[in-house]
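Task 17 of the worksheet. Students: predict the tertiary structure of the chain below and write it out as structure tokens. Keep your answer in the requested format; marks are given for formatting as well as content.
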Amino acid sequence: MDDLKNITTPYYMCDESLLRANLEVLNRVQEESGAKIILALKGFAMWSTFPLVKQYLKGCTASGLHEALLAREEFAKDDENLEVHTYSPAYKDEDIEDIARISDHIVFNSPNQLFKYRERVKEIDSTISLSLRINPEQSSSPKDIYNPCGLYSRLGTTLANFDERVLEYIDGLNFHALCEQDVDALEDVLKAFEAKFSKYFRGLKYVNFGGGHHITKKGYDVDKLIRIIKEFRAKYDVDVYLEPGEAVGWQTGVLVSTVLDIVHNGMDIAILDTSAEAHMPDTLAMPYRAMVRNSGEAGEKSYTYRFGGNTCLAGDIMGDYSFDEPLYVGDKIIFEDQIHYTFVKNTTFNGIKLPSLVILREDRTLELIKEFGYQDYKNRLS
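Model answer:
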């Protein structure tokens, strides 16, 4: 695309048509199951796309005051039917009143926190909905770092720590146990959740199934998800929420970078103007190997390169990739599926420039939404 030549790398580019396709899938789940789906800002917070997203989803779920402010200001400001849910492992005294003013639902992580803040919250907004996050102690999350139900997890209340006095004050229960997983994993979690906590469902208005549902991934059994939700709603006479993040941004865009230099130390190493550490953090934390357009595994094609980031961290490595033709300084490298859980976790480590944000509109025109510079780095420091 010729327009891309005029945009300085690195940059993330979100394809609006691909985003809409994901939203159509999620909306089908809503319409056929009766569930409400809200956007988890921790996974996808490109608020310049919210005019599109809110045509489909019912609100946002936030992980604290600042995400809740973004949800209220940019997603739900002009529509009272769009909801803002806020959850935090623990709230701070100086934040809770502001959170209560902008949230429709507040989720508490423990009975202690609920008892501490419920009166202050209700004094500010008597209509606000309160709920408790549950740890069903069942998860098949692929990595411990992303397992909210792992050993000694701080996230959610276990059955052993459940205080029945909360039932007088809550409207719902929440659980979150998945990480980019299929509906069979949800089914297993639901069995454990029901076995331990269904005796407390009477009188609840809703149950939130959390996030990690890989609904928009090819091969996901959407029909089974719809069936499970419908059966749960009918069985317990409650509303159901889902709060995916990655399923919204899944495969909707790329990170584009440029080869700055090629050095040789036992193998060819291409240094890029991006960074795994700063711009693709989950490639190191998960870890996983990001796909690169037109590449193969190391040795699969004629020319193999190790991709390294432009920081001083020795381990700032994206991986080894092979190509049919040799790479040259100035070539563009396109990392696939880099919209969810990327720029929401960016850092300015080493003062490296944050990637710009670009949208490929549905009419196939490009719009540069945001470009970052020195002040973005400086203003984080003192």
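Marker's comment: The CA atoms of residues 280 and 342 lie 5 Å apart. The first strand starts at residue 11 and ends at 15.
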